[in-house]
């Protein structure tokens, strides 16, 4: 995987809030509650796109049950 492809797969809070179409404050709440997969690096949070997509799929499956 090229470095540019890899960096496209990592979101910061602002990018992830746009991707999920939710407010940054709502996203911070999910992070604090441990409800969304993410990694704190220094003072900032980073989110791996495949992990987010998997999390979304799991949430969707939970709703269907």
Descriptive overview:
- With 65 residues, the chain is an alpha+beta fold.
- It has a single domain, classed as Arc Repressor Mutant, subunit A (Orthogonal Bundle), CATH 1.10.10.
- Helices cover 60% and strands 15% of the residues.
- It is built from four helices and three strands; from the N terminus they run H-E-H-H-E-E-H.
- The protein has helices at residues 3-8, 13-20, 24-32, 49-64; strands spanning 10-11, 39-41, 44-48.
- Strands 1-3-2 form a three-stranded antiparallel β-sheet.
- Strand 2 (39-41) and strand 3 (44-48) form a beta hairpin.
- The protein starts with a helix and ends with a helix.
- The mean pLDDT is 88.
Task: Give keywords.
alpha+beta, 65 residues, Arc Repressor Mutant, subunit A, three-stranded antiparallel sheet, 3 strands
Distance separating the two termini: 36 Å
What structural class do helix, strand and pairing data support? alpha+beta
**For the residues shown, what is the average pLDDT?**
88
Strand coverage percent: 15-25%
């Amino acid at each position: 995987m090229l470095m540019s492809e890899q960096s496209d797969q990592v979101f910061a809070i602002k990018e992830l809030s746009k991707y999920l179409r939710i407010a940054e404050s709502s996203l911070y709440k999910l992070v604090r509650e441990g409800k969304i997969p993410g990694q704190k690096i220094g003072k900032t949070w980073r989110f791996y796109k495949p992990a987010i997509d998997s999390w979304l799929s799991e949430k969707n499956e939970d709703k269907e049950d």
